[in-house]
## 1
Amino acid sequence: MDYQKFSQELPTLFNRRQDDLISPKSSQFPQIKDRIAKASINNTNIMQLLDFAVGCMNNEEIYCEIDSLGLTLISALVNHPEINAYCASSFSSLNNEEYYEELLKTLKEFNLDNQVMLCHEDAKTFLRGLHDINSKEKIGVCFLNCGNSYRDHFLNLLLLKEFLADQAIIITVITSKDIEQANQDFIASHKNSSLLLDWYPLDDSSDYLFLRLQIVAWDINIDQEVIDTNIYKSDENSKHLYLDLMKRCLMNLIYDNDQDMMRGKQGIIDEETGKITITEGAEYAPELKLIGGIWPSFAHTMIGLKRLDNLQFCIEDILAKNVEGDLIETGVWRGGATIFMRAILKAYSITDRVVWVADSFEGLPPTEYKDDVNMHLEKIENLAISLETVQSNFSKYGLLDPQVKFLKGWFKDTLPTAPVEKLALVRLDGDWYESTMDGLVNLYPKLSIGGYIIIDDYGAVKGCRDAVEDYRKEHNITEKIIQIDPAGVYWQRLK
Ligand SMILES: C[S@@+](CC[C@H](N)C(=O)[O-])C[C@H]1O[C@@H](n2cnc3c(N)ncnc32)[C@H](O)[C@@H]1O
């Protein structure tokens, strides 16, 4: 499997809009979707991803699906008559023979019955069976959609590795933290494996937000020496351990007792000001917190793990390439993202850059922008965090010092005269059209070439997206916008 081609060409298939992530799509997919309406994964972006992955395989390699429910299997093979496949499933979630027979029938309809060896057994039995018959056939792409248990998934990976081609990919549906941990541990314990893509494949179907895939690359030719000297250098490792712990603390993954105040269940309205304080939040799916989809009641940031990882990626790149300038966030709430910026500077012993922390510290201003006006975020007291509280949050991490500077007030008043000379990173998180535009107008001209701009709400707030598009159009900014998760995007300034 040419996973390098796969990983190099995959981004060119991605669109920046959320509703249609990979394009173009095979014309066969609507027919497959209609035929297999029952499938639990019914997402055309995944169908296209599999089609593309199989296109990167060598003809003598095998495609493998474990706990497949048909739709993904057919999408993977329908355009590749040269590729044979294993499909193993106990069909336990459906608990019926009927479905097995039905799948056989569907494979015939799509002329795939001769290409697929269908095994009516669970993953472990199937993989042990391959071992017992001493199978010489090698798997180029494996799609795993099984179970919630750490042990089962880790064991499946261990059994599977024996049958992987020299270069292969394993695509896993991440159904729980345990599955993610098993993937992580597998990668940590196999130096010839690495995480290629962590992806929330959106679709126009309703519950898309909760679907997550990880793609792990397997390459027996990876030079172990290079990995030993580059990745596991102990100094590097301790920086990453510190930053990893910071992220867990800032997101309150430690106690994980947050409620989601965005979907508040109860609140109090101040009769005089009309402001609302949400007093009781709602339960939420853990995945939602990781992609910044909640307002946590305790965590110091609401941006989620994907966007914290992105922040770290951008800053580490800036430091590695000596891109000149300070770091700024406009719209800091409890301060979490800016605390993390300061932590990264500390981890790398950087003393000549400042973290600028810009906010009203009183919440959002009223807006008149047509697409924002009905959100009424300016009324939410829970979004108004005082300067003293944010400073105290910095102190709790031991990070309040002269390398952190605060710009208190509305962006339109503070940003034009802020004593900021040059910036290497601009993170805009003020939600509204005007708040985003104030950041762009006043800060983008100060952003160094090679620096990064991150827009937190591009996919979540229409006004924010409009501001970015208006500004880019007016200034002929053509750098590619890269999606981080359903809401956040960024680009690197190249001109
Ligand atoms: C979504 S929160 C920011 C979340 C934060 N980045 C984090 O890490 O959790 C939005 C923040 O933007 C601030 N804000 C929005 N528009 C503003 C403006 N025009 N001037 C000053 N502050 C603004 C609000 O006070 C609020 O703290």
## 2
Amino acid sequence: MDIIFEQQLKPAARDTLSAALVMAEQGIFVSPGFGVENTVCGCKNSTCFRPGKHPFIQERPDYASLDQNEIIEMWDRSDLNLIVHTGRRSNLLVIDIDHRDGGFETYLDELAGLALFQSTFAVATGSGGIHFYFRCFEKVGSRKDGIAPGIDICCDATKRENISYVVGPYSKHISGGVYKPLEPKPIITITSNDIERISAKAKKRATRR
Ligand SMILES: [Zn+2]
């Protein structure tokens, strides 16, 4: 298993393009997203509904690559965020722990001690949450609150026209925060049985509160 991230990144190269190249080397499809400057989305649209969280190539939101040269060409400016495509194309599932609806407390009480969460690659999100990355070789639909309130599953898109993704390392959040990888770790495999098991555990906690 490949350990990501810091070993592969030179200290001076902690930017979204370098992170994209490391992800792509491991079979994870990536594309650039709009960055954030002074709390304004790079798309410059005053009614942007997902500031800093949408693909840069708006006509083809599903356009993403594993090819190092193609990715370098896609990153034709330095202020771009990183879109990490989840689901079967990347064999990637991300569990998104959010402060919304007590998600972070549920994580601390029920999930943080589990080997699954201690052993896999994770990214501190720009809003103070955590993205846990897992290899997943089954079809699992993305679901808001899929594990418990405030803990989402990001994997396969549930509608044909939609794409499923997370914002990746070194991207800027609208709040001014930056997405930062936690300790270098491999991305370990999760199964649908694991997901059922942890969501039963987390939901029990959530209903007790
Ligand atoms: Zn925007």
